[in-house]
């Protein structure tokens, strides 16, 4: 499990992974206050994508990615 160094690459890969199989995809966020680190993980049990940051401005990027994934979830037809 390696970490992405570029936010854009991580966001595109995470969205692609979700669109491939939405029912198996999981999105986990973890924040450690003592370290000031935010860790994001998107997995479908076969592929694991991770991103770690210490920058506060990345929170806005996280909100945007979460919004995109939520729009995909809301627009999925069952």
How much strand content do the residues show? 25-35%
Radius of gyration, whole Å = 13 Å
Weakly predicted, low-confidence segments = none
Widest sheet: strand ordering: 1-4-3-2
Q: Major beta sheet, specifics?
A: 4 strands, mixed
Count of extended strands: 4
Helix-strand topology string: EHEEEH
The termini sit apart by 32 Å
- Helical stretch tally: 2
Helicity range? 40-55%
The rough form would be described as globular
**Main structural class:** alpha+beta
Give the rounded overall mean pLDDT: 91
Q: Could you characterize the architecture of this molecule?
A:
This protein is of the alpha+beta class. It contains 2 helices and 4 strands, in the order βαβββα. It has a 4-stranded mixed sheet, with helices on one face. Helix 1 packs parallel to helix 2. The termini are far apart. The mean pLDDT is 91.
């Amino acid at each position: 499990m390696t970490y992405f160094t570029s936010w854009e690459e991580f966001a595109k890969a995470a969205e692609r992974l979700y669109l491939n199989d939405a029912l198996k995809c999981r999105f986990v966020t973890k924040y450690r206050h003592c370290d000031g680190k935010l860790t994001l993980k998107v997995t479908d049990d076969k592929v694991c994508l991770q991103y770690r940051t210490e920058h506060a401005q990345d929170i806005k990027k996280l909100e945007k990615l979460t919004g995109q994934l939520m729009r995909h979830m809301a627009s999925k037809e069952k």
